[in-house]
Amino acid sequence: MLGWPERHGPAQAQVMTNTDAHSHDAVDPDRIFQLAQGFMASKHLFAASELGLFEALGQGPVDLAGLAARTGLTARTARISADAMVALGLLERQGDRYANTPVAATFLSGATPADMRPLLKFWDRLSYPVWTDLAGALGRGRPASQVFDIDEELVPIMSAGIEAATAAACRALPAAAGLPPASRVLDIGGGTGSWAMALAQADPDLTGTVFELPGVAAVAEERLRTAGFATRISVVAGDLLTDDLPRGHHAFLLANVVHYFTPETNQAVLRAIRAVAEPGARLLLADFWTDPTHTQPLPAALMAGEFAIHVNDGDVYSVQESAAWLAATGWSYTGTAPLAGPISLVTAKAA
Ligand SMILES: C[S@@+](CC[C@H](N)C(=O)[O-])C[C@H]1O[C@@H](n2cnc3c(N)ncnc32)[C@H](O)[C@@H]1O
C-alpha cells in the first residue's frame, strides 16, 4: 500500500507498480492540496502584514469592528485576512476578539527589534513575482532577469529583507566565529553591514570593511552611519569578481554569497581572498549549507529555487562541497557550526 512520506520516511521510494493498482482507494491527495495551497498561505501572510493586522493588534485584542477601524479595512475583508491568520496560527480568537499569538507579537507587530516584516515585504515584492516563472527559469536554465538588475527603489527593500532574514544568524556569529580580539574583518558582499556590525558589537576593538556592489554599498554606508559604526567599519564599493579586494585584514567573511555563483566561480573567489590573506588568517563562510544530498535542511532545499530565480547560477551547496573548494584554494577547513535555522557557518584558516 502506498503511504505518505511522514509515515514511511522521505528516503523510501513511493513507486507504484501494477500490483499496487488495487490500493488506489487508500491513497488520498491531501498532501498535494496542502503543498499546492502553500502559495495561498504565503500570500495571506504577506497581505496581513502589509495591511497592518499584526501592528493593529499590537495595541491589544479587539473585535472585528475594532480591527476594521484600526486597519481601515471593511469588516468583510478584515475578517477574511484575520481568520486566515487564525487558521495559520499567527492570530488567536478569544470569543469575538482577535489577538496576536506570541510569535506574531514578537516578529510581526513592529513592537520589538526582531521585526520580520522587511523579509515578508522582500519576498512579496521581489521574490513572489519572479517565482511565477520558476518552471520557465528551470526549463531555460536561466531566470528572465537577475536581481542585480532590479529597479533602484527596490534595492533597499531587498537589503532590508535579507538583513531581517539573517538577523538571528548574525547574532549567533560572534560566538561561533571565535575571532581573536581586535580582528580586522573584510565582509565581502556584506549587504547592509549587519554581519560586520554584529561582530563589532561583540568586540569593541574590532574594525573592518564592507565590500559591496555600488548600489548596496550606498545602503550599507547609510546603515553603518545611522547605527554609529561608520568610524570602525568602512565601505568599499566594488565587484568581487573583477576588482582587487582591499588588503590589510586578518579575517574574511563571505555570508550568503556563494549561493549566487557556480562552484568554479566560488573557487576563484576563495583564491582571490587567499591572495590578500596572510597565513593563519580566518575565513568565515555563512550560508544555507546542506547535507551531501542537497535535500536537508528543508528550508535550504527550497531556497535553491529562490537563488535560481534571482541569479543565473544560483544554487545551494553542501558543507562537503565547501570543504573541497577550500582544500583546492589554499585554505584549511576547520569546522562547521550552526548559526540559526538553516544557516550555518563553515570556518577555515589560510594554509
Ligand atoms: C544574499 S546577499 C547577502 C548579504 C549579506 N552578506 C548577508 O548575508 O546578509 C548577497 C550580497 O552579495 C552582493 N554581491 C553579489 N555579487 C557581488 C559582486 N560581484 N561583488 C560584490 N558584491 C556582490 C550582493 O549585492 C548582495 O548584497
Automatic annotation (TrEMBL):
The O-methyltransferase dimerisation domain, residue ranges: 34-109
MF term (GO), any: O-methyltransferase activity
Keywords for the protein's UniProt record, in alphabetical order: Methyltransferase, S-adenosyl-L-methionine, Transferase
Signal peptide: none
O-methyltransferase C-terminal domain: residues covered: 165-331
GO biological process, alphabetically ordered: methylation
Alphabetized PROSITE patterns for the sequence: SAM_OMT_II (PS51683)
SUPFAM superfamilies attached to this UniProt entry: S-adenosyl-L-methionine-dependent methyltransferases, Winged helix' DNA-binding domain
InterPro entries assigned: COMT-like, COMT_C, COMT_dimerisation, SAM-dependent_MTases_sf, WH-like_DNA-bd_sf, WH_DNA-bd_sf
Record-given protein name: Dimerisation domain-containing protein
Species in which this protein is naturally found: Virgisporangium aurantiacum
